[in-house]
Design goal:
Layout: E1 5-12, H1 16-31, H2 36-57, E2 65-72, E3 76-82, H3 109-116, E4 119-125, E5 128-136
Antiparallel strand pairs: 1-2, 2-3, 3-5, 4-5
């Protein structure tokens, strides 16, 4: 198991980039020691936020990129996702669990990411929106969602 690692990817604003992001998230979650459930949670959180960055942040603009950064520390897996859009305020997003939104085809990505990760923060920047997600590694002192049992 890798103890510390850092990687940065620049993704095109195309839906095909989502699969690449999800695959990389799976690999980092595996290296971090997460069980199958934890790996799936990390990959789904990355998938949902990257889709939002491409579709809503960058509006599929081929001139814009999504920066995807993985940082693996002894205690946690940290993921940064940044688009080059005009930014948004997550507090103004409709509640995906309210009755009028339950049948909508979209709008649950942030809810899923929040449920699957231990911490998620949205930060508007002068160059888009930056999302920082964190999940405690199995065997660390954190109480992460979907963590595997500590390795012997």
């Amino acid at each position: 198991m890798v103890h510390s690692y850092h990687e940065v990817l620049r993704l095109e604003s195309r839906l095909e980039s989502v699969d690449r992001a999800q695959s990389q998230a799976q690999l980092f979650a595996l290296e971090a020691g997460f069980d199958e459930t934890g790996r799936h949670q990390v990959a789904m959180a990355v998938r949902e936020i990257v889709i939002n960055a491409i579709a809503h942040g960058n509006a599929y603009d081929p001139a814009k990129r999504v920066k995807l950064e993985f940082e693996l520390t002894p205690a946690e897996l940290i993921i940064f996702i940044q688009d080059e859009g005009s930014g948004f305020d997550p507090s103004h997003q409709p509640d995906p669990l309210s009755p009028e939104n339950l049948l909508r085809q979209s709008g649950r990505g942030m809810l899923l990411a929040r449920a699957f990760m231990d911490q998620i923060d949205f930060q508007p920047t002068p160059h888009g929106t930056s999302v920082r997600m964190c999940k405690h590694r199995p065997g660390s002192n954190g109480q992460g969602n979907g963590d595997a049992a500590p390795r012997a």
